[in-house]
Specification:
There is one protein chain. Strand 2, helix 1 and strand 3 form a beta-alpha-beta unit. The radius of gyration is 20 Å and the shape is globular. Helix 4 crosses helix 5. The chain starts with a strand and ends with a helix. By secondary structure, it is α/β, with parallel strands linked by helices. Strands 1, 2, 3, 4, 5, 6, 7, 8, 9 and 10 form a 10-stranded mixed beta sheet that branches.
Length: about 325
Amino acid sequence: LFLTGCAPAATEEYPFAPGEEERLTVYTSHKEEVYGPILKEFQERTGIWTEVVTGGTNELLERIEAEREEPRADVMFGGGVESLAAYEDCFEPYTCAQAGVLKAGARCEGDVWTPFSSLPIVLICNTKLLSRGEVTGWADLLDSRYRGRIALADPTVSGSSYTGILTLLSVLPGDDWELLARLVENLDGQVLAGSGDVVEAVASGSDFIGVTLEETALKRLAQGDQIEIIYPVEGTSAVPDGSALIAGAPHGENAKAFLEFVQSYDVQELVVSQFSRRSVRTDVPDPAELAGEGIKLVDYDVHWAAGLKEEFTRRWSA
């Protein structure tokens, strides 16, 4: 875990440090390039000092659960919503003022979490090692031709990787656990530490195929990486990542203000213009490169994915 942006207590060294009523502690699995500008603007607009703790989605959620008796954080910012749903007892429902403008399917029943952006899962391949069109979908991850050359982050740490594997299980025919066993066999013992390593492994040629988020692939493609983005022919998921108010948050009102802020029109425009993500608001259009042409979206059951997490983790570890 990495701590940054820490607001110190008022002392002789920091005579103007705010009191508890002007503070906020955020746990986030976002990269700094995402959370940095958002938190900076939030602090400037509200005067609320923000302390940030970063880490993987699952490790932060486990920390929130461990701290339930004495919560240390106010907001969980980031993580696929099926991961948040698996820990819904740790969160307090909150309905944002502009929830009515959210896209269909983006809003959680009961508002246990609030959506931040829509994130299609895609496959990528190295265009120097594989011809364009050679990889078409999820079934290729089970093809022995690519054994040991598949880039996949540890799904017990990476929320996007978990979503990717659950998407594979939901669209391919057969028993879920048999499919998982076949995937693990084809990984041949190779699992990457984090989702940020996937595109690097494919772009460098260490691996042929990778499973990642659309936004991550688009950014690296814009930087000139020799990769191809594949929207699986079987269909893919576009599960939102979200934010959630931690139950018993020490600074609950400030946490609610932050949730309102990240769902605001201004921030949602930033989601599209700077982060290569899709907005969850109906009044913020996606740019041309994210128009969705050729993408087949599947009906991904968030509650099914959340309910499967414990069993999945046990079988994956085994």
